[in-house]
Amino acid sequence: MGKDGTSIPDEEWERFLREAEAGTPGAPEEPSARARMVARRLQEEPGRPEGWRTYRTAPRRRDRKVWYVVGLLAAVALLLVALDPGRVTGWFGGGSGGSGEAGALRPTMEEPFKGSPAERWDDGTAGISLPAARATGWMDKEEVARALDRSRDFLAASSLDPGVLRGERPREAIALINPRQRDVQDYLTAAFGAPSEEDDPLLLFSRFAESEVRLVGDVVKTRGRVTYREGDAGAVEVTTDVTYVYPVVRAAAGSDEVVRTIARREIVMSWDDPEKVVIEPGTFSLVSYKVDSTNGGCSTFTGYFTPGFGADRATSGPEDGPEVDPYDRSTSMDARMREAGDAACGSAIRS
């Protein structure tokens, strides 16, 4: 980007590449795939320092953990309703007990969040609170406030936009990502062209196949936090940690069994100084991104969440990971990933 805020012309961009390769002093750094690969190797070698510009996309297997509610839990719950209904009610976060309440706590088309802590959460971006802005790094207070607003705009465009949730390409969200960050652009191309475990769009975006499922109503419940600090070379580094709760039913006409898919994402964005990093105005560079999802599909890489319904959930066996409460935000994402280890899937105690 030029000093006047305009985009870099292609001829100037090519000149920059030649000068950077030759070691011209003062040339801005390009966020590169090489830097990201070096960062990954350094992370695997304890005690080694990280590079200056490290776009950390942690090993994808660790970043994508999927959890299922095991059918056995339903049977245990039915037994405990008779023995100790108050305890079962407590699991689902509501009511004072009573043998008839287990059925009453199930989500419905009219109350899709019934029986879950999300009933008390805020709707959409209202659940994603922003901190007060202060001058940080290369930005003054007003610029930091704009960066925070745009960071939340990305979350809305990637995980709350109705069209994206129906499976459309998240164009507005992608437009906020630095187009000069080549490794991320390669990931995006692959993720929407041929999704795989390595290139999974669900790491950044929430999407459901419209032919298979549809959302219930127009509300997504959220709870999350946004923090920021001065990052490398004076950048403003924004970290977002948000849990999204999506109620869905089968797409078939007349379907009314409501289940919930829950996704917790941590995304770190770097609002870089254009004097030091090659970046388009109004965009950020991705530092790292990871997702932990419940009832979204296990080891299926279609580019869409694939929630289970009815018999599919009742017959699923125990997975190889630990049990987890998808609504519990008392531990960090890093701690959650460490607990999960290398297990691809685990068991959620509720959805």
Evaluate the radius of gyration: 22 Å
Please indicate the percent range of residues in DSSP E strands (runs of 2 or more): 15-25%
Q: What is the overall pLDDT average? A: 78
Number of strands: 10
Please tally the helical runs, counting DSSP H or I stretches of 4 or more residues: 12
- Low-confidence segments, given as residue ranges, are 1-10, 32-63, 68-101
Q: State the major sheet.
A: 10 strands, mixed
Give the CA-based shape. globular
Helices and strands: which structural class?
A: alpha/beta
**Helical content class:** 25-40%
Distance between the termini: 46 Å
Order of helices and strands: HHHEHHHEEHHHHEEEEEHEHE
Describe, in short, the structure shown.
The protein is of the alpha/beta class. It has twelve helices and ten strands.
